[in-house]
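Possible regression after last week's pipeline update?

I re-ran a chain I had predicted before the update to compare outputs. Posting the input and the new output here so someone can diff against the archived version. Not blocking, just want to make sure nothing changed silently.
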Amino acid sequence: MSTDRSPRFFLVCIACVAAFHAQAQATELRLGSASLSLSLDSELDYCLTSLSREGGSDAPLAIPTAQRSLSPWLIRVRRGNGRYADLVAGDAGVVSHSRKAQPIAVHWRDVTSRGMGGALQVTMTVRLDGTSGKSRWRLQVDGDIAGVLWWVEFPRVFGVRGKGNGRLAMPHYWGRLLRDPIGLRARRSLTYPSPGSMQFMAFWQEAEGAVPPSPPELGVAESGWLAGVGTSPGLYWARSLED
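New output (post-update):
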């Protein structure tokens, strides 16, 4: 038996190892413009890890290390037996990403769970919207599974820091305004169509130093919508959870 080994074989192996190492180190994906920049980390399920506006320094998010999954999406499937199965990024068989200048596209293939027939193919696309200071997030779900696509949570953002000026409009019956929802550190969810009258919540932050609208007095605005007051953009639900 010949023990002679080709030097070319070793050169190829070294090149492969070097390429793999370089790819493993390139875990941060960044998008940036004059008005907004953000970062995703492939080692953390491609979750959003930092965000900054108008050319300022990066504002890293307080990513909870104890979180079971940092998946930027959660897909709930209702099986034929009536039970539910939650799928996240960690349930994918193959994960990859692609990008040019922008957008960033992340592909999760063969997303499934134990005992579930079939699999899903999930693609997340993130891009910056010109000079508007906004980012656009899109999730595409394809595939064939033994069940019904019941709901999708997307995009999921972890570790948001609050300054006490946040507002959350919740479609709780006729609507509730929750002040400083981040500071309360409580998960808020509603079931549609009752008590949730709509299938969305709206979050915004008051401008620095602005005086937020006072909670409506009892009998003045019990429920319903009021036009934007002060620095509050658009519309907000009139009844506050502080009432």
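Follow-up from reviewer: compared with the archived run. Residues 1-26, 217-243 have pLDDT under 50 and may be disordered. Marking as no regression found.
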